[in-house]
Amino acid sequence: MGFGDLKSKDGLSSLNTFFADRSYIDGYSPSAADAVVFEALASAPASNYPHALRWYNHIKSYGDLRKSFPGTRKPVTSYGNSTAPAADGDDDDDDFDLFGGDDDGEDAEAALEELKKKRVAEYEARKAKKPTVIAKSSIILEVKPWDDETDMKEVEKNVRSIEADGLRWAASKLVPVGYGINKLQINCVVEDDKIGTDFLEEEITKFEDLVQSVDIAGFNKI
Hints:
Layout: H1 9-18, H2 32-40, H3 50-60, H4 103-129, E1 136-145, H5 152-160, E2 167-178, E3 181-191, H6 197-204, E4 211-221
Antiparallel strand pairs: 1-3, 1-4, 2-3
Helix pairs in contact: 1-3
């Protein structure tokens, strides 16, 4: 006859009464019977069914291990009040633990702990394989000469001679300033953790015979 409809109040009440003096559906350790009844429930029993709720939370704690509970899975109607614990004369009664404290229960808990450790290790391994995202920026520099007699090709040559880890020079062009003077507008891509604008300005202004000043004309994260 079983518990009846476990999604109804009568079914839950029957289940709660059943677990008033039991820890598992059949015997003294988790079995396929517990997995079948657990899966038949729509959700956790309400707090007014304390025995059923205690059992539900205990079985839920096993996670995917429920699929490997020992025993044969039968229809949920096969389980219920007709299932009873061992007779009073059973020699094992003195060691009976309502909360599954026997060796089988301990083995299941140990297996659950091993499963958790395995999943944490797998997660850490997947995390370690993910490529590290390198933050980069595109910077446009404007390099101004002293006068119209400054050799701008020499200015660009000197600027591009600056080498550093995380720095890559890109396109450039000359932009008229006035009075026959041109400034060098040059683009570079930098790794943010390695190269900053201060470094670029300091290195370029070292060519003091050619360079009057350096300005940042554009700065964009890539």
